[in-house]
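User: Could you go from structure to sequence for me? I need the amino acid at each position, not a summary. Structure tokens:
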């Protein structure tokens, strides 16, 4: 083959998709991996990665510019920022990256076994401040999406009555919250959970130790009940919260199922 033909063939090969270039950097991959487990503040990411803040902040900016990481100001301390992985966007970019290499990879990368297929019995406690919206919605969505296999509960550090908009948006999803009571997290300190998931920056700061060794996860979810306006005016905020929780819980269930499958492989080995 002539040099001119080789040069032409090489020129026809496109550069690697931006997502692969972003994720391919060792430190950025470490940051993505940590954020896949839990929302984190930059100081926590520095400690986990063993790198100085200026370097971590630089690479977080690259990931934010790439649309795979987002940030929210902490409601517990306005000087802090929580970073979170945009899992849905990562999934889209992975599908596109696979398709750019070979069309047949698009369906393979984008497929998944379906939630609940191999999900083993597990338990999760969702926490927020008031237990009036976020954690109640998360509890109900986890029960629905797992078909009851994930035993979910919810509580708050300062319980308030259930918000009518939480009832409204869940009813639209075929879930009835009316009649459920708000609970203080002290009711559950003696119970064992596989996962303790804080949905509120404030409650994360006061979360007590729970029996056993549950996996602690933080999702920095904005409080729709804290939005100003009438119930009708704040309803869109509750819709956004419900959609975010649906997405996050879906990925959580996939992770639990993957953990279950991996454990079964180890036990059979």
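Assistant: Here is the amino acid at each position, in order:
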């Amino acid at each position: 083959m002539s040099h001119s033909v080789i040069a032409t063939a090489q020129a026809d090969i496109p550069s690697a998709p931006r997502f692969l270039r972003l994720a391919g950097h060792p430190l950025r991959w470490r940051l993505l991996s940590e954020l896949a487990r839990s929302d984190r503040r930059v100081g926590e990411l520095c400690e986990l990665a063993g790198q100085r803040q200026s370097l971590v902040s630089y690479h977080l900016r690259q990931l934010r510019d790439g649309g795979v990481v987002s940030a929210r100001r902490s409601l517990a301390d306005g000087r802090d920022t929580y970073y979170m992985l945009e899992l849905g966007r990562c999934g889209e970019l992975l599908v596109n990256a696979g398709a750019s290499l070979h069309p047949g990879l698009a369906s393979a990368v984008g497929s998944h076994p379906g939630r609940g297929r191999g999900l083993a019995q597990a338990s999760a406690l969702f926490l927020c401040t008031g237990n009036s919206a976020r954690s109640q919605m998360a509890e109900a969505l986890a029960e629905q999406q797992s078909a009851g296999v994930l035993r979910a509960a919810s509580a708050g550090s300062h319980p308030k009555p259930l918000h009518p908009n939480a009832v409204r948006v869940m009813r639209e999803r075929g879930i009835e919250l009316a009649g459920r009571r708000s609970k203080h997290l002290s009711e559950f300190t003696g119970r064992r959970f596989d996962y303790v998931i804080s949905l509120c920056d404030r409650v994360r700061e006061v979360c007590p130790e729970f029996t056993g060794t549950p996996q602690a996860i933080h999702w920095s979810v904005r409080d729709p009940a804290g939005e100003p306006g009438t119930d009708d005016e704040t309803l869109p905020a509750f819709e956004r919260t419900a959609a975010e929780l649906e997405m996050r819980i879906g990925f959580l269930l996939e992770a639990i199922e993957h953990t279950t499958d991996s454990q079964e492989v180890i036990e059979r080995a």
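One structural detail worth keeping in mind: The first strand starts at residue 40 and ends at 41.
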